[in-house]
Design brief:
Elements lengths: L2 H10 L9 H7 L2 H21 L2 H21 L4 H21 L2
Helix pairs in contact: 1-4, 3-4
The structure holds phosphoribosyl ATP (PRT).
Length: 101
């Protein structure tokens, strides 16, 4: 399973009947609800990270990634755009590294 695959599945749920899947149901509630769910899952992951429960953090991190992708899909932000932004930052940090040598 890659994030690309999961994002494609989530996008396919945008036009599905809300009662056909959890994702379709969440997307049908709108971008604000998707953002709220992402926030809840992020807080749950923070709590497990602070507690140091690695198994629980792993599970919550999966929830965070899933709900991040749902939130992006709800606002029609392509995952590729986010990855491109990370690439841009990586190449910038490479330049900064070279400049400081
Ligand atoms: N990765 C996930 C995934 N992670 C979390 N969740 C769901 O997100 C929900 C969040 O958990 P909560 O405890 O907050 O749920 P809840 O308490 O029932 O919800 P609320 O009452 O708070 O609204 C759970 O019902 C989980 O099933 C996910 N639902 C689907 N996927 C994947 O998304 C794809 C599409 O799934 P379907 O929508 O089921 O077709 C598939 O690849 C799935 O594996």
């Amino acid at each position: 399973m890659t994030l690309d695959d999961l994002y494609a599945t989530i996008l396919s749920r945008k036009n599905a009947a809300p009662d056909s899947s959890w994702t379709a149901q969440l997307l049908a509630k709108g971008p604000e609800k998707c953002a709220e769910k992402f926030g809840e899952e992020a807080v749950e992951a923070i709590i497990e990270a602070v507690k140091g429960d690695r198994a629980a953090l792993t599970s919550e991190a999966a929830d965070v990634l899933y709900h991040l992708l749902v939130m992006l899909a709800a606002r029609e932000v392509p995952l590729d755009d986010v990855l491109a932004e990370l690439d841009r930052r990586q190449s910038q940090s490479g330049l900064a590294e070279k400049a400081s040598r």
